[in-house]
Specification:
CATH superfamily of the largest domain: Vaccinia Virus protein VP39
Distance between the termini: 66 Å
Order of helices and strands: EHEEEEEHEEEHEHEEEHEHEHEHEHEHEE
Number of strands: 20
CATH topology of the largest domain: Rossmann fold
Shape: globular
CATH class of the largest domain: Alpha Beta
Number of domains: 3
CATH architecture of the largest domain: 3-Layer(aba) Sandwich
């Protein structure tokens, strides 16, 4: 840990002072003392008041990410172990830990790193230089804490291949951390079995954040005809099929994803009622409408249409179009499940966009539920980046 310290400009640091963890480059007046990017340094207000310990990277607009607010709690082995223990204790209290997100970055006060647990395998994504240096220690502590509960981790795979690492001065990396192992891991979610390919799947291999949203939609599906758009490896579709849906069609543009979805259907003995097709959803939905197809339940789980504020306008067009098309395929009195996983598509804008789509489709919406990400992806108040998933279930009825 460096003896350097950063001093904020007068009037700056409002986000940090209200509970946030990020300090931007334009909020810093000076950095005193020798340091290397990635080092832990102290942070002071303009008047010398101690604000916390955090790691610095002058290459990033988020120049400092706080890890501790107390002078007496520097970033050392003891602090890292406490953070890891707290994160695991929280998951044990709130969710099924067979497969879950064990570390969720800032929401677990370990900024810039996420770690998912798939049975006895860990998948790590590290996005910031300072936390990347601490990654071996975090993993060491986590494996030790899990072992105390009888969970022996047989392998760790890293999926730190996001472009944002380049802005931190880090290379993109994907590969084994330690001895190689079979990267196809079987998990069970809501009683449904999945094969997760932690090396080749999207992100860390499986989207754990929708676990309880899938269960919520599945309750509407017994005996119903269901359309699951952007199905990835079949998660919503198979939850619907396992709940007793009469017929399910899952759609995804990825041949690899569709192949895995079909394998997952066979794994659960659902291949007779749950089928998959590889197609662009934006192209397929108008075709289904032209063919006169309708569904009791339509599920829209698209990828993030925007990952920056600069592309929000185009994202709004995409969300509006996909929801309009989806609503037109819902039978009168049927249900639409729709979501956005983009942090930059804020809840009010997403709701407005859905309302515009409903007017365009001449449909009325009766809200059944509004949900967010699963509780193993906790939303830390005062840290907006931890809140990203907006999920609605609507009944769709003909306009009066």
């Amino acid at each position: 840990m460096s003896e350097a310290f950063a001093t904020l400009k007068k009037g700056e640091g409002r986000t940090v002072k209200s509970g946030g963890l990020w300090i931007y480059d334009n909020e810093i007046d000076s950095v005193t003392g020798a340091f290397e990017n990635g080092d832990i340094i102290a942070v002071r207000d303009f008047d010398g008041f101690f604000l916390g310990w955090g790691f610095i990277n002058t290459r990033s607009k988020i120049t400092i990410r706080l890890m501790s607010r107390r002078r007496e709690h520097p970033v050392d082995d003891a602090l890292i172990e406490r953070r890891v223990r707290d994160a695991w204790a929280y998951r044990r209290a709130v969710t099924d830990t067979g497969c879950c997100r064990v570390i969720f970055g800032e929401a677990d006060f370990l900024p810039g790193i996420v770690i998912d647990k798939f049975s006895d395998v860990l998948v790590v994504e590290s996005l910031a230089l300072g936390i990347d240096r601490l990654k071996p220690l975090i993993l060491e502590k986590l494996k030790a804490v899990l072992l105390e509960d009888g969970i022996r981790i047989r392998g760790v795979y890293e999926r730190s291949d996001a472009k944002v690492r380049l802005q931190e001065g880090l290379e993109r990396f994907s590969g084994f951390l330690g001895e190689p192992f079979d990267t196809r891991v079987q998990i069970e979610e809501n009683g449904v079995k999945f094969i997760v390919d932690v090396a080749e799947g999207q992100k860390t291999g499986f989207f754990l954040d929708q676990k309880y949203n899938r269960a919520a939609v599945a309750r509407l599906c017994p005996g119903k005809k269901v359309l699951d758009c952007f199905t990835h490896t079949g998660s919503f579709a198979l939850n619907a099929g396992a709940a007793g849906a009469a017929e399910v069609l899952g759609v995804d543009a990825s041949e690899t994803g569709v192949a895995q979805a079909r394998e997952n259907a066979e794994l659960n003995g659902l291949e007779d009622r749950v089928r998959f097709t590889c197609a662009d959803v934006f192209d397929l939905l108008p075709q289904l409408e032209a063919q006169g197809e309708t569904y009791d339940v339509v599920i829209l789980d698209p990828p993030a249409f925007t990952k920056s504020r600069s592309s929000i306008k185009n994202a709004v067009k995409g969300y509006r179009e996909i929801n309009l098309r989806g609503m037109k395929l819902v039978r009168d009195g049927g249900f639409l499940a729709t979501c956005s996983c983009s942090h930059f598509m804020d809840p009010d804008l997403f709701a407005k966009t859905i309302a515009e789509a409903a007017r365009g489709a001449h449909k009325r919406l009766r809200q059944v539920e509004f949900r967010t990400q699963a509780c193993d992806h906790p939303i830390l108040w005062a840290n907006d980046a931890s809140y990203y998933l907006k999920f609605y279930i609507f009944q769709v009825v003909e306009d009066l």
